Amino acid sequence: MRTLDTVAVVGAGAWGTALANAAALAGRRVLLWMRDPEMAAALAASRENARRLPGILLHPSVEPTADATRLGEADATLLVVPAQVVRQVCGEIESRLRPGSPLVGCAKGIERGTGLFMSEVVAEMRPGEPVGILSGPSFAPDVARGLPTAVTLACRDAVLAAQLAASLSGPSLRVYHGSDLRGVEIGGAAKNVLAIAAGIVAGRGLGESARAALVARGFAELMRFAAALGGRPETLMGLSGLGDLVLTCGSAQSRNFAFGIDLGRGLAPAAAGGGRLAEGVFTADALIGLARASGVEMPIAEAVAAMLSGQLSVDEAFAALMTRPLRSEV
Question: What pTM was computed for the model?
Fold first, then answer.
């Protein structure tokens, strides 16, 4: 069994900080890397990421640093930055990582312009090196506070996935493992777009029946899309698919759901979300581009993309969905 004593976490946002604490609770020595030396020094002194996770102290085994050369100490690295900057950050750090050490992407999205999933972006930037994806129903404050949470970690090498999962699992974070890298990525990326749609339903006051129907039909879209791209049905029925969809389509803690609520209440996309990053906004066009290329119908995702681009109003988009031809449910 590969020894993973030291873990690096690249990115000191809420999710990165939470995962750093979780890895420390699992018994790992953790390097929490960020670009800004002043931020690293302040975090090392205060032990609190007051901007991202106020009131939650860093575990004693977490060491903030801005020294990229320290990344070479890590047996595995978690890349916890927004999906659209994964390529840029990989370019900055890849020469610092230990050869043969796995890099685990923790962003949920599809790269705009290329239509690549995060594992594909990492593979381009770090060819021939092991890559994994971590995804599942998880809010950063819950994980940081040590509340019970379960996620999935996938690598094409099933043995490596099991080793990584065992190294990150602790008293409150349970990490399942698998080899269906694509299925795990699809669940994480597509659910963000569907969560925006669910938020719009809530913000528009269309009722819980409408939201339940949207989530169910959205999941059907997700399953069709995954099947076309090689994802396994059982993966999408698990934590990184159905589990994450249920969480993000029903809680205002979800940035994508909160963004959708604002759209439903009449805010323009530029004003929605309170300035917080909603990955589904950037993923929508890439998702439907891949769906069209694969011959997969995703009418809810199409409607979200049309609303975000201003092609349809909220009312027009939902009217279009409600007047689609009737068909068998399966």
Answer: 0.96
